[in-house]
Amino acid sequence: MENILEKATKIKEKIDKYNYYYYVKNESLVSDIEYDKLLKELEEIEKKHPEIKDELSPTRQVGSSLSDTKFQKVEHKKPMLSLSNTYNIKDVEDFHQRIDKILGKLKEDESKKITDYALELKLDGVSISVHYKNGKLVKGVTRGDGTVGEDVTENIMEIKSIPKYLKENIDIEARGEIVLPLSEFKKLNQIRYDKGEDLFANPRNAASGTLRQLDSKIVAERNLDCYFYFLADCDKLGIEKHSESMEFLEKVGLKTTGVCDLCSSIEELEDRIRYWENNRGVLDYETDGLVIKVNMVELWDKLGATTKSPRWAISYKFPAKQVTTTLKNITWQVGRTGKVTPVAELEEVEVSGSKVKRASLHNFDEIIRKDVKIGDRVFIEKAAEIIPQVVKVVKEARTGEEKEIMPPSVCPECGTELGREEGLIDLRCPNEKCPAKVRGQIEYFVSRDAMNINGLGKKIVEKFIEIGKIKDVSDIYDLHLYKDELKSLEKMGAKSVENLLKSIEDSKKREYPKSLYSLGIPHVGKFLASLLAKESKNIDKLAQMSIEDLLEIDGVGKKVAESVYGVFRNKKFLERLEKLKNYGVNFKIKEVEDTAEFFNEEFKDKTFLATGKLKHFTREGIKEYIESLGGKNLSGVSKKLDYLIVGEKAGSKLKKAEELKTVKILTESEFLEMTEK
């Protein structure tokens, strides 16, 4: 019993510490999923040993953001409860069955059982209660500990999406979530970065820290936003359903997310959950899950609540985007350009649904700026849902045993002294024959998006670099001279060698955009390779273009133009290109129509429309790109539209596409991934 009590006490102390930093200091020491697991563990202990549970247990309390002196305390007329969280569909099914069972006991009339659920986005921000008297904004109160909050009226007056006057002269209390849009979050962190200040780990911390500023001018500068999700005492206004209360809020001038999906079965709930898991990337704010509510308001009181959470609602959380783990070591990795990158070796952890043991730290300057040490607890997230990266260090978790990270002075692959190019912060290996650089260039050259040479695996490449048969990507086309040596390699039989040599030969016929991309010109990816190929028709013409000529191509900026111009004046690059041309590699477009087959057949006769601000394309640029791939552009959303590509601040077109439910909604990154298939 002593061990159980001791364990419970330690968990409580951890949770209290995490709550203090999260709600009062606006800092996260652990990820949401780790916090929820800890709370769940305490709940299980208290369930088995109820004698150790007390009124002050974190399982009975809402996390508190109350400070000692900053703002006046205000008691809520009705408690602002937190929601029970779940990370799996099974718990949603149990929630549905539990409600059905409770209502079945309350009413004999089966027709009065639950009819539908309202499913909404769960925003990751700061909860707020806003009061209007005769249509005028009179008070704004934070959730606080759920019973008592803090008066932040002066600060919310600076948030444009919270109107000072409603469209009707009524007395209401509306509850919502104050968030910092992702676009504003990036701007704010860039400003802090330029000033040498610590960056916010996520938009939620930034929003919380902003709302609790003593100077309301700072609030005005940071462009917070607010979305309302609850109308208190809506039944007194004759409103019977939660979905109707959302319509009412919009009618009087309060902003909602516009997402209130009605579902009458567990199957419909699961379908919408899957939809938002795949499409939340189109939003300009962080959403960490979905809220599922019984839609009939009259049933809420009948279903009741625990001391902490209502029984008529549940939160389904998406797989964690951010988690904390321990940084065990640093590995220095050499890329195809010679750039030496620090890679964090981590205790394995799950991020966005996949296991992660390594994460990017970009460069040594980043290590210094973030003050990263070996042994630190660090926050990890997936950049653009793909590449894991270290976001920040949890300095409060340091024990004093952490070790400083020192940059290498020589290349970890070939031992050459490292240097930095003028004006750049990256460490680089200058040795053109560095095995890591050659290996990286070959891997890039033979990849599916480039020359698509199958069978040239890492071990084969390493072996031939080691024995001096491959010193440059052009040497790949001489591998037929070493057929017997290839056959002697492990797992390389006669058939495998024949297939490899055939794939090498077939690669000579690759389309010009792909062979251009395979050259690895700095800043020229698949999209720009396609544009440059379409404009130049052949590589000789591209080589003759001036910087001014290149800048005239829509989508080509100064950095790209200078890079392309520069490589065609690089002796070693020209020597490689000449060798490849002599081997018969294709560097010209035979017919203009060939560009429509650059990627795949998936675009043929499909219709597309782009809306919102895009990062990688101008509006005309993406239209041309779609047409070059065989797709068609539409000017509006209709049943004829197959794909809507959504950028930042997408408006009515996105809403209409969601209502149609026949249009596939893509983020810009998802669209680019589609081109890679």
Structure notes:
It is an enzyme of class 6 (ligase). One of its GO terms (molecular function) is DNA ligase (NAD+) activity. The chain has 677 residues and is of the alpha+beta class. The protein has six domains: 2-61, Helix hairpin bin (Helix Hairpins, Orthogonal Bundle), CATH 1.10.287.610; 85-317, D-amino Acid Aminotransferase, Chain A, domain 1; 322-427, Beta Barrel (OB fold (Dihydrolipoamide Acetyltransferase, E2P)), CATH 2.40.50; 435-507, DNA polymerase, domain 1; 512-595, Orthogonal Bundle (DNA polymerase, domain 1), CATH 1.10.150.20; 599-675, BRCT domain (Rossmann fold, 3-Layer(aba) Sandwich), CATH 3.40.50. Helix content is 36%, strand content 18%. It is built from 24 helices and 21 strands. Strands 12, 13, 14, 15, 16 and 17 form a six-stranded antiparallel beta sheet that branches. A hairpin with a 4-residue loop joins β12 and β13. The longest helix is centred in the first third of the chain and has 23 residues, at 2-24. The two termini are 58 Å apart. The model is unreliable at 592-599 (pLDDT under 50).
